Every structure is written in structure tokens, then in C-alpha cells.
């Protein structure tokens, strides 16, 4: 509906910072893909494809990743506690294990009801379980008082940026390419994004010299650079940082008094090497050089949305604060209090993620089987997609390292760029739109994440089941190149 004088709001008088924000992951192509999906469901014929593949967003269960049985069984009892009164039916007829019932009882004891608010920063007992998980992961102590449960990691990012950014001169170093949550959030806050480019020639490595150049340029322009965002493993790149890279970033942050925002939601999605947390390396540096790094502020984030859990819709996540001033931390608590609390069922799912069935417990065998199958399936599809890209003319893509994405370079003919210009699009947008219209496969143009001038990319997940859709991309690409060469 168009704006009319009878309405108070129109496109010219709403918050200009909201209008300025861009979020390509759910942008024009995603909207069009949903229109195609609705048309197919409505029985429309004549489209050159029979299904829509949403490879534009890391939404595992939309693409048939099955929920982990233990998690969903516990959640079912939390949502309907009366079922626990029928323990025999659960155990003998519905396939529930005793530890499922025990965990549900434990959570209900500490939560009361998933329909009730919790403490603003989350259920204390759940925060304690997260602290124990972090201690086991990193080998260093963690305090539940420094842990804040959130509605997914995105909500945690929003909280932190609201507190960190003081005015329009507040700058945040953001990797390019990046997950557009960061640039969009900074636009809404009217703060300044300070981009630093990742090195594609080194598997999208994080180069501290490049970060320094961006920092110094922003500083010279009067920007108060306050924090650096690191996405590890990377989105959209999938790159995993080495311990040396992490040490270099922490050293730089220490020198320049920068808050480190470590987005670590893909920490279990690692195919090459191992995940190393910023918390672990920071604590190691503090141990090696007493006093030197005690002022480095670190906020690290995790989520139930990714990994083998894939429970995006339940909106569960948390962030941990390290070395933050207690008065600042109090303001962060106040900010999350304004939103009351994270979804309590999502908080419970976080507890299940960080405290899954252990070896010897009744549910462990099935949990381990399901978890491993999901991991191996992701790895297999990632490698199949990478192999296909290697065969495609003008496409360059490093081996999949982690996360849920590949971010290949595409080198397109000049005629394709000319055709794109006539439509008012960038060449990568034009390519991705043509791909969607020909195959039903929705990916995201590299321009939605940021890319070096003169380069073209797209991001695709490898979550969709099977490999037939991969063949569709190969076929489309050949026809596209032949048409525009």
C-alpha cells in the first residue's frame, strides 16, 4: 500500500537509519524465492524447477536437518510437564530414556515454568552449566555472573553494540566479507563501520597489518574506534583462525584498547584443523605475561542456531564477558533487563547444547549417532559443492574449512556485466537472480557481505540434502557463461 496523507508514517519520515540498513541474506532474492515457493505449493506449473532450495541462509532445519532426539524429547516435557506423570508410557511406549526425564525434572526445578520470565540475564543454574562448559572447553575458570543468555547470538550482538557505541563517531572494526548483521546494526545505531579486508589468497586469513591500516585510516578521519569484530569460524568465508592469528589480534586490541567481539557461533562446524576460542588464548597470554593483558575486554558469543544443533527458531544463545568494568557490566544487565529476558525454552536448549548426554548415559548412543551423522553429512555436501565449483569456468573457491558456507569468486564475462548494468544491478546480483529464476536455488550476492572492489562472489550454504541441486548450479553456470561470453 502506498503512503497517503491519511497516514502519520510514510517512507520519508520514518527513522532514516533503519532505511539505510541493508540485510541481503533476507533481501530481494530471498523474497522472490518465497514467492516461487508459494507458487509451487499452489500448484503453479511452467516454472523451470520443481522446488526452491534456500541456500541463502544458515537455517538447517528448513533444509531437512533433523532435530536431535534428546533435545526435543526434553523440550516436549518442559512444554507439557504433565507428561512426566506418565513415566511408564514415556519409557515403554514412546521411546524416552530415563535421563530425558531426569533432565526435564532438573530444568523444571530451576526454571519453574518455561512460560514464566527468568532473571534478566538468564536462569542462574543454566548460566552455571554454561560456565562449566566453558571451563571444560578452554581449561580456565568461568563465572556464571559474566554470562548472559540471549535470544540467539544476534540479540547478544545487538546488546553489545548498543552499549559500546556512544555516537556517530564510534567505530567498530568489521571483517569484510562479513555477516551483514554487523553493518546493518551499526547503520541503525548511526555508528561507523570500519571495514578491514580478509585475505582471500590465504583462505580468507585475518591479517593484523590490514587491520592496523583500517584502524589508522579511521582514526585519522576522527573516528573513535572502540571494538573489533572477529567471526571465527568465518561467515560467509568459513575460515578458522589459527592460534597465532588470535594472539596477534589480542595483542593489537591490547595496544589500542579495543573491545574484542568474538562471534564463535560456528565453533563446532570445523572441517580443517580445530576451533580455538579467544577466551582460551587470552587466558594463556595472561598466564604467560602477568598483568599485560588484564585490561583486554572480550565478549564471546555462541548460539543453538548453528552447529549440529541447528535450532534457529528456538532463539537460544549466550555471551560471556571477560575483563569488563563492573559498572559497564551493570549497564549491560540493565539493557538486557529492558527486554525482560531471553526465551526460556531457548535458554533450556542452550543448557542441553552445553551439557549433552555423556558416555554411559542412556541417551548418549543415539545422541552421538545423530550428532556424528549431521556433521559427516555437512562435510560431505561441503566437499561435493567445492568439487563442483572447481569444475566451473571462472570460479575459484578454497577448500571448505568450517561454518556452513562457501564463498566462491566468480569471474563473469563483460557482456554479463553490461546486461547487469542495464538492469541497475551489480554483476553478482544479476548472476544470482538468473540462478534463482533458472533453478530455484537462492544464494546471496557477495556484495551483500562486502567484497574487494573489482571482485565478485556469492555465498551458498551446503545445508540442503542431496547433491542434485549442486548439479543444477553447474548446468546453469555453463549456460550462463555460454550466453554472455
Textual characterization of the structure:
The protein is α/β, with parallel strands linked by helices and 485 residues long. 45% of the residues lie in helices and 12% in strands. The protein has helices at residues 16-20, 28-41, 69-79, 87-92, 98-111, 124-138, 152-164, 181-189, 208-220, 243-256, 278-288, 326-338, 344-354, 364-391, 414-422, 427-439, 468-484; strands spanning 53-54, 147-150, 170-176, 192-197, 224-231, 259-263, 298-303, 317-322, 395-396, 405-406, 409-410, 441-442, 444-445, 458-461. The strands form four sheets. Strands 2-8-7-6-5-3-4 form a seven-stranded mixed sheet, with helices on both faces. Strand 6 (259-263), helix 11 and strand 7 (298-303) form a beta-alpha-beta unit. Helix 3 packs antiparallel against helix 13, helix 6 runs parallel beside helix 13 (344-354) and helix 15 packs across helix 16 (427-439). The protein starts with 15 loop residues before the first helix and ends with a helix. The mean pLDDT is 89.
Q: How would you summarize the topology of this molecule?
A:
Layout: H1 16-20, H2 28-41, E1 53-54, H3 69-79, H4 87-92, H5 98-111, H6 124-138, E2 147-150, H7 152-164, E3 170-176, H8 181-189, E4 192-197, H9 208-220, E5 224-231, H10 243-256, E6 259-263, H11 278-288, E7 298-303, E8 317-322, H12 326-338, H13 344-354, H14 364-391, E9 395-396, E10 405-406, E11 409-410, H15 414-422, H16 427-439, E12 441-442, E13 444-445, E14 458-461, H17 468-484
Parallel strand pairs: 1-12, 3-4, 3-5, 5-6, 6-7
Antiparallel strand pairs: 2-8, 7-8, 9-11, 10-14, 13-14
Helix pairs in contact: 3-5, 3-13, 6-13, 7-8, 10-11, 15-16, 16-17
Subunit structure: Homodimer.
InterPro entries: ALAT1/2-like, Aminotransferase_I/II_large, PyrdxlP-dep_Trfase, PyrdxlP-dep_Trfase_major, PyrdxlP-dep_Trfase_small
Domain Aminotransferase class I/classII large: 99-467
